[in-house]
Amino acid sequence: MREAEILNYLPAIKTKSVPTGIIFHRVGLIIFLVVLFVALEQNIHSFTVLISFVLALALIARAVSKVMLFKVHCRLSLPQRHFFPQDAAVVNIEIANNKFVPLFWIHAAIPIPAGITIADVNDDDGLDGQPEIPELTFDFSMEAFSVAEFHPAIVCSRRGYYPLNKLTLTSGDLFGLYSQRAEFINEEALVVYPRLYPIKDLDIFSLYPTGGVCFKEHLFYDHTRTMGVRDYCTSDEFRHIHWKASARRDRLQVKIFEPTVMGQMALFLPAEEFCMEDELETAICVLAAIAHRAIEQGNSVGLISNCSLKDSGKPAAIFPDGNKNKMDILLETFAKINPRAEGRWELFFTSVLNSLRPGTTFVFAATQWGEPVLRSIMTLKRAGYKVVVVHPGIRKDNPLRGEVAAYKYELRNGYIQCELQQ
Asked: Taking the chain, what is the end-to-end CA distance rounded to the nearest angstrom?
């Protein structure tokens, strides 16, 4: 049966019955008991009958409300979890009453994060968002051993990571004197990617032909693909030693990697460079467009940022590893980025510096041109890495003009326009 499928849902958090109105609170009931005692002493029969009826009604209502949410189970699910801005998402909500007692009334509420709007399904197109509201609510009743299903549509207004992890049910007795409240915890979340714009006049890959990003005659080795082992030489890196093969052969062996002409690109997004949310959102769109173009051309792209991710609170550190199908991972990481920095940029950059591979082209997004970021750029430049900076050119012009290539970008109507500054 359909009802039996919902028995394994997450249990509700137990809560006590809450009275509606001051009369049925503990203080009000004590006052009623005192008046009842006085009425009995004074033989006032009308008061005795009236107050006894009120107290009996309160007792029955409280007992009924306590069992209203017993064996009530919920499930909130998303048929699809990944979207772009202005896409419509459907939320599946199933509530099962698996007992003989019907639910006279029930109120369901789901908190809606900012950035999500409720679609007006009565409109012709069904996508016109209503003003942002704090929660999605439903009021209904349920028969014994029945299931209620709802499929509201919501609109993903902007980039972000939006947990839909709590569904609250409230029910009670027939007269609404007492209510019972329970919360059902879920692990669903909407992931809204940044908008992908076409990008014009951006030719990072031809700036550094020796960086191996575009020119196929430059050869690298893919450290994620081992094709064999050989004897260790003093010029080999210690981290490439194959310890299991060395133990079997009783002498040091190093890994032999497959040759590749795949370009490597790493995108840097320092949190300290963005003091306004709009600037960060534009920079994320620009980096996402750069990553999309690079991956389309057969290159491997990584993302390094000390912006904390909304689900884990950790910084983003995705290194280019030869995986051509990484766009989904990058877009999801872009979606989870929030403006809060997870640690200082200097410390974070130092921690990832040793993981950067030769032959990689590095792209920095900047607006403030702060000293920590400038030092990082010059550190990479002096180490022989190929560095490009993309910036809006609003606050400061390029202070590294003549040393590092920079692209000034502008988000126009439906595309990103870039201008090379050297």
From this structure: 70
